[in-house]
Design a protein that fits this description.
Length: 198
């Protein structure tokens, strides 16, 4: 807002609203809107994560802010990413590919932390959008774990994984929750919290 980051506030309580686990996958949904302490310019910040073992992660973010703000989705790394369109590649001992499926209009850039005297090294992949009611959908794939990804609007993705699985994940656009189909078997990822084994 006005070139200055809107900071999260101390002594606020965000909430895990969804948590489920199955064979070869885990799902988490969080509402962190409270961290902005009722800032008038921010009305929603939610994140859902689906981990598909061993090396694929799908991240879905809902962010709603007023038109006088700018939204930036960021991923910090010790490795400098190489950006080509909506794809960023982090190549080290292993290679991670980050594919942005939504929003298609976001502007990608890389921030070098050495520009800030508080840091010695590191980079941040940014995807920037104007304020509004936005949805961010990213697939993180390590060492080619996801061989094909196809967006379903701004709420879902169909993937072919290197281990042979075919996966479709469709998130609810406005509230936490999703549907996941793996090789024809569909699981409802509801906004409820399971007690997972320790």
């Amino acid at each position: 807002r006005g070139g200055t980051a809107i900071r999260q506030r101390d002594n606020t309580f965000s909430e895990i609203v969804g948590l489920h686990q199955g064979t070869g996958w885990m799902y988490m949904a969080a509402d962190v809107t409270a961290a902005y302490a009722d800032d008038a310019d921010i009305s929603m910040v939610q994140r859902e994560v689906v981990y598909l073992a061993p090396n694929t992660v799908v991240i879905y973010d809902r962010v709603a802010s007023t038109g006088n703000t700018t939204q930036t989705w960021g991923l910090v790394s010790p490795i400098q990413p190489q950006v080509s369109g909506a794809t960023a590649t982090f190549a080290g001992d292993h290679t991670m590919k980050v594919t942005r499926l939504a929003p298609s209009a976001a502007s990608a850039s890389v921030y070098d932390f050495k520009a800030d005297s508080d840091y010695k090294n590191g980079w941040r992949l940014d995807a920037t959008m104007a304020g509004g009611d936005q949805r961010y959908l990213h697939v993180l794939s390590i060492d080619g774990a996801a061989t094909q990804t196809t967006a379903i609007g701004d709420t879902g993705v169909t993937m072919q994984l290197a281990d042979g699985r075919n996966v479709t994940i469709e998130f609810s656009r406005n509230t936490p929750g999703a549907s996941m189909t793996i090789d024809g078997t569909t699981t409802a990822l509801t906004a409820t919290v399971d007690t997972l084994p320790e």
